[in-house]
TrEMBL record, chain A:
Superkingdom of origin organism: Bacteria
Coiled coil residues, start to end: none
GO MF terms held by the record: ATP binding; ATP hydrolysis activity
Keyword set includes ATP-binding: yes
Domain ABC transporter: 2-229
Gene3D superfamilies according to UniProt: P-loop containing nucleotide triphosphate hydrolases
Protein name as it appears in the record: ABC transporter ATP-binding protein
The keyword Transport belongs to this UniProt entry's keyword annotation: yes
Lineage, broadest ranks: Bacteria, Bacillati, Bacillota, Bacilli, Lactobacillales
Keywords of this entry: ATP-binding, Nucleotide-binding, Transport
From TrEMBL, chain B:
PANTHER family in the cross-refs: MEMBRANE COMPONENT OF ABC TRANSPORTER YHHJ-RELATED, MULTIDRUG ABC TRANSPORTER PERMEASE YBHS-RELATED
Entry's Gene Ontology molecular function annotations: ABC-type transporter activity
Membrane-spanning residues: 21-42, 184-207, 228-257, 279-302, 314-333, 339-357, 369-391
Keyword list, A-Z: Cell membrane, Membrane, Transmembrane, Transmembrane helix
InterPro entries per the UniProt record, alphabetical: ABC-2_transporter_component (IPR051449), ABC2_TM (IPR013525)
Organism (species): Alkalibacterium putridalgicola
Cellular compartments per GO CC: plasma membrane
Keyword set includes Cell membrane: yes
Name of the featured protein: ABC-2 type transport system permease protein
Superkingdom of source: Bacteria
Domain ABC-2 type transporter transmembrane stretches: 23-388
Membrane topology type: Multi-pass membrane protein
C-alpha cells in the first residue's frame, strides 16, 4: 500500500506540490490529472525518492522507500527512452536486473510478453530498428515484466493508437488483478474514467479534486441535461437556472443548468404530453470538470 | 550480482561490442603501422640512393680504384675518358658531375665540376681524396701503417654529463634523460588522446541516458552512487581493455619482429626495456590518475547536458582544461625550471601533463613528486564526490539554459533536498 501524507515540495519561491494526501491500496488504480506544470511529475519523483519533500512523507507498506523497495517499483517516465543500439531482449534483461531480478528469471518470460503486447519484431532486433509504437511497447514491458507491486506511469497513453491503448489498459488491469498499487497521469480523461478507482487533480501543486470518479462527478451536480422533446431551445432558455443550450449532431438539446434541482421544472414541462425519448440529467464529464477547474483563476 | 556490477557490465559490454570501439582501438595501431612503414620506406630509399653518376678523369689508377667502390653512393661512368666527353654527358644529363684529379709530389690536384644533384656528395669525395693523400704522403715519408694510424687517430673524450642541483654536481647518463623526456612526452600525448576519447564516451553515456529519460528509470532502480561509480568503473575497464590489447599486440609484435631487419633499422639504438621501465613508474600513476580525473569531470559535465547534441558543448570546459595542461607540459619540455611550470605541476588538473617533464628534467625532488601524486589522487576523490552530489540533481534538470544556469538550478535542488532532509530528521 502506498501512502502519501502531507506532501509539500518547494523550489525557491515556487510551490510545486502543496499538501498532497492520498492512499493507494493493493489492487487499486489512481489517476493523477492536471495541466502541464501542475506538479504531477514532481509528485512521481518524490514517490520515487529522486526528490526529497520539504514536508510530509511517502510510505510503502508502512515503511519508508529505500533502495530495497526500488525492486518492487515499475516506472514509466513521461518521455520514453531505450538504448537504441541494444537488442530488445538485452534491454529488458538489463532493466529487470536493475530491479533485482536474475537473468534466468526474466529470460523465459520475454517471448510471452512480446506476444501479449503484439510487438512486431524479433527479440534479437536492435531497438532502433523497431517502429516508435513498438518501442513504446517494449518500454511498457520493461516497466511491468518484473511484476512490480508499485507501478508509476507518467502519461502512458500519449502517442498510442486506440488498439495499442487497449493493450496497455489490459496490461494495467492485469497488474491490478495481481495486487499492484498503480498510479498514472494522463491528459486523456476517458482513460482515467475507464481505469481509475480514484483520482486526484492537481492545480499549481494543490489537489483541487480528490476522490472516486463517481463522487467527484456527483459533487458537481447533475447539471447537464440531455433532452429530446417538443420544447424548442428558445423555450428551454426561459426556464430558471438554464445558462445556455446547445444542440448535438443527433438533434438532442443539451441544457447547462446551475443546479440539479433546476431540472425538475423542465422535466414536468417536457413530459406534460406523456412520452419523450430522452431526458437524461448527468453530472459534467471529467473532461468538462478538468477544463472548468483548470481555467479558473487562483483565488 | 549487485546493481553496481550490473551497470558496470552493461556499460562495458555495450561499448566493447560496438563498432566505435574497434575503430578506436585499431586507428592508433594503423597510424603507428603507417608511420613505421613510411619511416622504413624512406630509410630504405636513402640507403639505395646511387642514382647519381659521375665521371672520374684521372691517370692515377689508385684514385680510379677508390671511386669504384660501391659504398660511396654513386656510380662511376667508366666510358667517359676526356673532359669534352664529360661535358657532353653533363649536358645530356647522363652524369651529374665529373672529377679531374692528378697526383703530383704527394699532392692531389683535383677539380670537380658538378650540378645540384651532387652537392651532398662533396664532403664524401673530399674525405676520400684526403685519405688517399695522407696515404701517399705517408708513403713518401716511409711511415709504417701503425704510424699512419697513430697520426690520424681522433681524440677520445670522456664525457660526463652533469646536473647542477642544490649546490652540487650530479652525474647523469644522458641517454637516461632522453628516455625520461621521451616517456614524459609520450605520456602527455597519450593522456591527451585517452582523455579526449574517454571523456567523450562517458559524457555521451550519461547525456544519452539523461536525454532519453532512461536515467529516471535507472535512478528509481539503483542508487545514484551505484550508477555513477558503476559507469566510471565500466568506462575505466574499457580503457584497460584497450591498453591490454595494445600490450598484447605490442608484445606479440615485439617477440615476432624483434630480430627482423626493419625493426632493427627503426629502433636500432633504443633500449626498449629502459623505456618500458620508465613508463611503468611515476608515469603510469600520472596516466591513470589523470585519465580518471578527467573522466569523472566528463561524467559531471555530461550530466549537465539535456540532449545528446549538447554533449560537445558540455565537455568543452574539459577540452580547454586538458589543452591548457598539454601546452604547459610542452612548455615544460623546453623550460622545466620555469616558475610558472613549477606552479602548474602542483595544480591537480595539470599535474599529469606537467610533472612527468619535471621528473625527466630532474627539477623536482622525490618528496615533491609524491606530494603532487597525493594531491592529484586526493583531488580526484574529492571531485568524484562533488560530481556525484551534483549528478543526482543534474540528471533531473532538462533546461535549455547554459551550463552555469543548469549548475545553479542543480545546486538549488541539492540545497532544497538537504534542507528537506534536515527538516524531516528534526520533525
Amino acid at each position: 500500500m502506498l501512502e502519501v501524507k502531507d506532501l509539500t515540495k518547494t523550489f525557491g519561491s515556487l510551490t510545486a506540490v502543496d499538501d498532497l494526501n492520498f492512499t493507494i491500496k493493493p489492487g487499486e488504480i489512481m489517476g493523477l490529472i492536471g495541466q502541464n506544470g501542475a506538479g504531477k511529475t514532481t509528485t512521481f519523483r518524490i514517490i520515487l525518492n529522486l526528490l526529497t519533500p520539504d514536508r510530509g512523507h511517502v510510505l510503502w507498506n508502512e515503511g519508508y522507500l529505500t533502495t530495497k523497495t526500488f525492486n518492487k517499483i515499475g516506472y514509466l517516465p513521461e518521455e520514453r527512452g531505450l538504448y537504441p543500439k541494444v537488442s530488445v531482449e538485452n534491454q529488458l534483461l538489463y532493466f529487470a536486473q536493475l530491479r533485482g531480478k536474475k537473468k534466468s528469471e526474466i529470460k523465459p518470460l520475454i517471448d510471452h510478453w512480446l506476444e501479449k503486447f503484439e510487438v512486431k519484431g524479433k527479440k534479437t532486433d536492435k531497438v532502433k530498428t523497431l517502429s516508435k509504437g513498438n518501442q513504446q511497447k517494449v518500454q511498457l514491458i520493461s516497466t511491468l515484466i518484473h511484476q512490480p507491486e508499485l507501478i508509476i506511469l507518467d502519461e502512458p497513453f500519449s502517442g498510442l493508437d486506440p488498439v495499442n491503448a487497449e493493450l496497455l489498459e489490459d496490461g494495467i488491469r492485469e497488474a491490478q488483478a495481481n495486487g499492484a498499487s498503480i498510479i498514472f497521469s494522463s491528459h486523456n480523461m476517458n482513460n482515467v474514467e475507464e481505469l481509475c478507482n480514484s483520482l486526484i487533480m492537481l492545480k499549481d501543486g494543490k489537489p483541487v479534486l480528490n476522490g472516486t470518479v463517481r463522487d467527484i462527478r456527483q459533487q458537481f451536480g447533475r447539471t447537464k441535461l440531455f433532452l429530446e422533446s417538443d420544447l424548442t431551445p428558445e423555450e428551454l432558455r426561459q426556464f430558471p437556472g438554464v445558462q445556455r443550450v446547445e444542440k448535438t449532431n443527433d438533434g438532442i438539446d443539451v441544457a447547462y443548468l446551475t443546479e440539479t434541482e433546476d431540472g425538475k421544472a423542465i422535466f414536468d414541462a417536457a413530459t406534460k404530453n406523456g412520452y419523450i425519448p430522452t431526458f437524461s440529467q448527468q453530472p459534467p464529464t471529467l473532461e468538462e470538470i478538468f477544463k472548468r477547474l483548470a481555467g479558473e483563476k487562483n483565488e | 550480482m549487485s546493481k553496481y556490477w550490473v551497470i558496470t557490465k552493461e556499460v562495458y559490454k555495450k561499448n566493447v561490442k560496438s563498432f566505435g570501439f574497434a575503430v578506436m582501438v585499431l586507428s592508433p595501431l594503423l597510424v603507428f603501422a603507417f608511420i613505421a612503414g613510411l619511416t622504413y620506406y624512406f630509410s630504405q630509399e636513402e640507403q639505395q640512393a646511387p642514382d647519381v653518376s659521375i665521371a672520374v678523369l684521372t691517370e692515377n689508377e689508385s684514385i680510379n680504384q677508390i671511386f669504384s667502390n660501391e659504398e660511396w653512393g654513386f656510380e662511376i661512368e667508366k666510358e667517359i675518358g676526356t673532359e669534352t666527353e664529360a661535358e657532353e654527358a653533363l649536358l645530356d644529363e647522363s652524369i651529374s658531375g665529373y672529377l679531374v684529379a692528378e697526383v703530383e709530389n704527394g699532392t692531389i690536384d683535383a677539380q670537380l665540376v658538378y650540378t645540384d644533384d651532387m652537392s651532398e656528395l662533396l664532403p664524401i669525395i673530399q674525405e676520400a681524396l684526403s685519405n688517399y693523400q695522407t696515404m701517399v704522403r705517408a708513403d713518401q715519408l716511409a711511415l709504417a701503417p701503425e704510424e699512419v694510424m697513430a697520426l690520424s687517430e681522433p681524440v677520445m673524450i670522456d664525457e660526463q654529463y652533469v646536473n647542477v642541483e642544490e649546490g652540487s654536481l650530479t652525474q647523469e647518463d644522458f641517454s637516461d634523460r632522453m628516455i625520461q623526456q621521451g616517456g614524459a612526452y609520450f605520456v602527455s600525448i597519450a593522456i591527451m588522446i585517452f582523455i579526449m576519447t574517454y571523456a567523450g564516451i562517458i559524457a555521451e553515456e550519461v547525456a544519452s541516458e539523461k536525454g532519453t529519460r532512461i536515467m529516471e528509470i535507472i535512478l528509481s532502480s539503483a542508487s545514484a552512487t551505484n550508477h555513477f561509480f558503476g559507469k566510471l568503473t565500466g568506462v575505466m575497464l574499457i580503457l584497460l581493455t584497450q591498453i591490454a590489447i595494445y600490450a598484447v599486440v605490442g608484445l606479440g609484435a615485439w617477440l615476432y619482429f624483434k630480430d627482423a631487419q626493419i625493426v632493427q633499422d627503426l629502433i636500432g639504438g633504443v633500449d626498449v626495456a629502459a623505456i618500458f621501465q620508465e613508463l611503468m613508474g611515476y608515469t603510469l600513476i600520472f596516466f591513470i590518475v589523470g585519465v580518471l580525473m578527467y573522466v569523472v569531470l566528463a561524467a559531471f559535465f555530461g550530466s549537465l547536458a539535456t540532449k545528446m547534441e549538447d554533449v560537445n558543448k558540455a565537455v568543452t570546459p574539459i577540452v580547454f582544461l586538458a589543452l591548457t595542461g598539454f601546452y604547459v607540459g610542452i612548455f615544460a619540455f623546453t623550460a622545466p625550471d620555469n616558475m610558472f611550470v613549477a606552479v602548474f605541476s602542483y595544480i591537480p588538473l595539470f599535474t599529469p601533463f606537467v610533472m612527468p617533464f619535471r621528473i625527466a628534467a630532474e627539477t623536482v625532488s622525490t618528496f615533491g613528486i609524491w606530494m603532487s601524486i597525493i594531491g592529484t589522487v586526493g583531488f580526484a576523490i574529492v571531485i568524484s564526490f562533488i560530481a556525484l552530489a551534483f549528478y543526482r540533481s543534474n540528471v533531473l534538470i532538462y533546461s535549455d539554459t547554459n551550463l552555469l544556469g543548469t549548475i545553479k538550478r542543480s545546486w538549488s535542488i541539492m540545497q532544497s533536498n538537504k534542507k528537506a532532509k534536515k527538516l524531516n530528521h528534526s520533525a
